[in-house]
């Protein structure tokens, strides 16, 4: 799995890779620039655009200079905008500068008229991960000017101004696309930076994942290629029992819809048998909406150990008898999934957290998480608290949102790459609960269940989004779950 390294470790990695491979840093920069150009050709028709490359004094600027050279024969025109005298720039910047052909027009930013056409593309190669203070002076002036103008804007590695591992202080370049090298930089996951990063793309620069994995920073980026190995395989003689018997608790009066969504999602994720515990008055609706589901009676609720996994919380309400909730947690000795009101009740009575079975999976959205741990001032702090919470209670903490994170009891943090804004719709969290409970029930360990659940859920949201964009509702996500197994070639 792809490791995510801090800004400091990136420098160490580059230096070690260069030393070990016997290549120069200039060659690594060339590889980064070439791979950027491949991305560029895949996303734009170069001959239809003029290119304006703003290059700062470090190696991020050097990338920009190399890109200007590599694309100058394909685009309509290239202008390289410079801030500093060559002598004040990094060695690799200078070496690239000397290789510039005549087709690249070089202009100092203070002589530039800042007149763009709609199809012009601005490349931000001002600062990368080497930024060490908020931008000011001419850099801030240029960034603010660019932010106010219409053009297509692409940031190289990271939008200039944003630190690799911290929350922005001051101003930064506002990109439509951020093309980041090798792995997404940590700060690209912060919602505070959403208006600056635009869509994030990761391009390889030729450092193998195995080399990268030597640098353990306990943070990983979950991608499609990681998923097949996490899945269990079932054989031709597999029976309903192999696919798991699960029970979902929730669906108070007027909120049975949450259970309809969770249970359907569980079935579409392959659950063998799904029971639900819901308000009596809601039975009819439940069984009409999902005939495959069984409504649990007193007997089933008494014999919880007969189930492989439990999912607790969707639409449960906060009036639940807490001694009933505690008894569920105390009597069931395997990991459970806790969401929504299951979490809100724990926030109301934190003493109950001690009864949550070890290895359980908690799936709060940001608000639910803050009810558990108190307010935070930034996403960075939130992620730190998630990591601490997972360690303290021995659970897997899934913090939902864009780039959903999964914090593990042993201090690791995984960031999901699937999903989109169209999933911000009522009930999509209930779908996730059903999916993860289904995987747990099928005998996946909690980490596998969490990673597969989050990835497939996001992918289902992407597939639904392709057809329906902002018209996506939670049921559309469920309808796309089966296709996610096809897309990933999971039998
Ligand atoms: N082998 C390499 O070195 C590679 C580097 N790459 C690129 O190199 C970048 C990192 O390069 P650098 O470490 O040179 O760092 P940057 O290019 O991000 O800039 C650092 C330079 O800017 C100065 N600086 C920092 N903050 C400033 C501020 N607020 N105002 C004014 N000056 C400021 C620093 O003193 C330093 O001179 C990556 O983001 C990536 O784009 C890629 O080419 C891949 C290979
Ligand atoms: N902008 C987004 N990008 C990616 N995923 C998102 C985005 N917004 C929401 N989601 C996903 O949708 C789900 C919403 O869950 P939740 O907030 O619990 O919804 P609900 O309570 O309505 O069921 C989560 O899995 C979350 O990760
Ligand atoms: K940049």
UniProtKB/TrEMBL annotation:
Any coiled-coil regions, as ranges: none
Binding residue positions for (6S)-NADPHX: 59-63, 128-134, 139, 157, 258, 315, 365, 430
Entry GO MF terms: ADP-dependent NAD(P)H-hydrate dehydratase activity; ATP binding; metal ion binding; NAD(P)HX epimerase activity
UniProt-listed SUPFAM superfamilies: Ribokinase-like, YjeF N-terminal domain-like
Annotated catalysed reactions: (6R)-NADHX = (6S)-NADHX; (6S)-NADHX + ADP = AMP + phosphate + NADH + H(+); (6S)-NADPHX + ADP = AMP + phosphate + NADPH + H(+); (6R)-NADPHX = (6S)-NADPHX
PROSITE patterns for the chain: YJEF_C_2, YJEF_C_3, YJEF_N
Keywords: ATP-binding, Isomerase, Lyase, Metal-binding, Multifunctional enzyme, NAD, NADP, Nucleotide-binding, Potassium
Binding site for AMP: 400-404, 429
Transmembrane region(s): none
Binding site for K(+): 60, 124, 160
Gene Ontology BP, a term: metabolite repair
Limits of the YjeF N-terminal domain: 10-213
Enzyme Commission no: 4.2.1.136, 5.1.99.6
Domain of life: Bacteria
Pfam families assigned to the protein according to its UniProt record, in alphabetical order: Carb_kinase, YjeF_N
HAMAP family tied to this protein: NADHX_dehydratase, NADHX_epimerase
Family designation: In the C-terminal section; belongs to the NnrD/CARKD family. Belongs to the NnrE/AIBP family.
PANTHER family assigned to the protein according to its UniProt record, in alphabetical order: ATP-DEPENDENT (S)-NAD(P)H-HYDRATE DEHYDRATASE (PTHR12592:SF0), ATP-DEPENDENT (S)-NAD(P)H-HYDRATE DEHYDRATASE FAMILY MEMBER (PTHR12592)
Function: Catalyzes the epimerization of the S- and R-forms of NAD(P)HX, a damaged form of NAD(P)H that is a result of enzymatic or heat-dependent hydration. This is a prerequisite for the S-specific NAD(P)H-hydrate dehydratase to allow the repair of both epimers of NAD(P)HX. Bifunctional enzyme that catalyzes the epimerization of the S- and R-forms of NAD(P)HX and the dehydration of the S-form of NAD(P)HX at the expense of ADP, which is converted to AMP. This allows the repair of both epimers of NAD(P)HX, a damaged form of NAD(P)H that is a result of enzymatic or heat-dependent hydration.
Subunit structure as annotated in this protein's UniProt entry: Homotetramer.
Protein name as catalogued: Bifunctional NAD(P)H-hydrate repair enzyme
Organism, scientific name: Cecembia lonarensis (strain CCUG 58316 / KCTC 22772 / LW9)
Source lineage: Bacteria, Pseudomonadati, Bacteroidota, Cytophagia, Cytophagales
């Amino acid at each position: 799995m792809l490791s995510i390294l801090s800004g400091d470790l990136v420098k160490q990695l580059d230096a070690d890779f260069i030393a070990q491979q016997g290549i120069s840093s200039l060659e690594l920069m060339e590889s980064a620039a070439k791979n950027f150009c491949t991305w560029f050709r895949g996303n734009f028709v170069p001959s239809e655009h003029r290119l304006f490359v703003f290059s700062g004094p470090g190696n991020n600027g050097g990338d920009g200079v190399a890109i200007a050279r590599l694309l100058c024969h394909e685009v309509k025109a290239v202008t390289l905008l410079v801030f500093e005298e060559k002598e004040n720039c990094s060695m690799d910047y200078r070496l690239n500068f000397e290789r510039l052909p005549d087709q690249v027009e070089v202009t100092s930013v203070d002589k530039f008229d800042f007149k763009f056409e709609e199809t012009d593309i601005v490349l931000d190669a001002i600062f990368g991960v080497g930024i060490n203070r908020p931008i000011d002076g001419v850099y801030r002036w240029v960034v603010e000017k660019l932010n106010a103008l219409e053009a297509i804007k692409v940031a190289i590695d990271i939008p200039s101004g944003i630190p690799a591992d911290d929350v922005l202080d001051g101003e930064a370049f506002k990109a439509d696309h951020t093309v980041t090298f090798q792995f997404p930089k940590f700060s690209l996951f912060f919602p505070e930076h959403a208006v600056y990063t635009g869509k994030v793309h990761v391009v390889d620069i030729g450092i193998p994942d195995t080399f990268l994995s030597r640098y353990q920073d306990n943070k990983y980026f979950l991608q499609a290629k990681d998923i097949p190995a996490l899945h269990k395989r079932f054989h031709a003689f597999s029976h309903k029992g192999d696919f798991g018997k699960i029970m979902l608790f929730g669906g108070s009066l007027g909120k049975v819809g949450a259970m309809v969504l969770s249970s359907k999602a569980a079935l579409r994720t392959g659950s063998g048998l799904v029971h639900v515990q819901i308000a009596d008055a809601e039975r009819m609706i439940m069984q009409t909406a999902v005939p495959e589901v069984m409504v649990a009676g007193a007997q089933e609720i008494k014999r919880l150990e007969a189930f492989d996994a439990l999912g607790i919380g969707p639409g449960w309400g906060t009036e639940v008898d807490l001694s009933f909730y505690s008894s569920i947690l105390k009597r069931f000795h395997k990991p459970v999934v806790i969401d929504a009101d299951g979490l809100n009740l724990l926030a109301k009575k934190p003493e109950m957290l001690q009864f949550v079975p070890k290895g359980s999976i908690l799936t709060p959205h940001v608000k639910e998480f803050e009810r558990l741990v108190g307010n935070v001032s930034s996403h960075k702090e939130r992620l730190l608290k998630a990591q601490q919470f997972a360690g303290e209670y021995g659970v897997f903490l899934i913090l939902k949102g864009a780039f959903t994170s999964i914090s593990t009891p042993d201090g690791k943090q995984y960031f999901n790459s699937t999903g989109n804004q169209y999933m911000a719709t009522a009930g999509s969290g209930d779908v996730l609960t059903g999916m993860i409970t289904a995987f747990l029930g099928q005998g996946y360990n909690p980490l596998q269940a969490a990673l597969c659940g989050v990835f497939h859920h996001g992918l289902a949201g992407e597939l639904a989004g392709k057809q329906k964009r902002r018209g996506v509702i939670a049921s559309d996500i469920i309808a796309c779950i089966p296709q996610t197994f096809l897309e990933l070639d999971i039998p």
